[in-house]
Amino acid sequence: MAPPKAEGRVRHDMAEPAPSDRHLPVHQRFDTVETPRMEAVDVVARRKRLRLIAGGIAGVGLFMFAVAAWRLGLDPVQEPELPRYDPNAPGANGTPAPPANPSALKPITPPPPAPPPTPGARDVEDEDAEEDTAEPGVPPKTQRAFLTLRTNLPAHVYIDGARVRRQTPLVNFPVRVGTRDIRVVAVSTGEQKDFQLRFSRGQHQKLDEQFQPPPTRR
């Protein structure tokens, strides 16, 4: 008598593979899930949902358009009034209408010329300056400076030995740039004063000299 076969030991710590025999009942098979069909169902449901949303949006738009059209229908459109023909109007008979501003047609008269200045109104220093600049031998602008010399007594002025045609006062008298020897001689007393001045380009120096007045007769 042959010994009985030893049955295989069942181990619960090892996972068993899923049954794949097609002869097993349906509830015991796990490989028959039809995923493509489920995806098709989801696509159809999603399309229906999108159609409902689009239909709702279109309905809202139509409602707003209807409300706007209803409001426009309530307000009557006012046509602009055309100007009526007036036979008494100035332009109806071919005569031009008078301008709104009558002064616009008047010629603009130029302002009257300014009156010439009176000789007494001119500044004394300006006259002196003009006379001084008329002195012959005026240096060029690049070598020109100016001297203003006043004295309490009329005096002759000598610059570098040359006598100036005018007596004091000298206002804005042009002199050459550099060191100049100046002598002032009082006409009434003959008193003289000598000094040197150095001028730079465009410089204006002012001097005020005092002479001893002549003795008064008793």
From TrEMBL:
Domain of life: Bacteria
Compositionally biased tracts (Acidic residues): 124-134
UniProt keyword Transmembrane helix, yes or no: yes
Comp. bias (Pro residues): 108-119
Region (Disordered): 1-24, 81-144
Parts of the chain that traverse the membrane: 52-73
Keywords: Membrane, Transmembrane, Transmembrane helix
Protein name: Uncharacterized protein
